[in-house]
Amino acid sequence: MKKLHVAVVGTGRIGKRHIKHINNLAHLSAVCDIKKDIADIVSNENNCPGYYSIDDLLKNEMIVNK
Hints:
Elements: E1 5-9, H1 13-25, E2 27-32, H2 36-45, E3 50-51, H3 54-60
Parallel strand pairs: 1-2, 2-3
């Protein structure tokens, strides 16, 4: 079965909970947080790109909203 690709915006306490569940159900494509150090840590932990602005995330990742 093909997994859904998901990006998480905000990698604080709730975002990390979302990431934990996403990793069980879908593919985490990217994370985004305005706090660069946190975005870098979470992206490294999850082996995915980290972004510091939603604009950069949307420019570089295939995000579909239907």
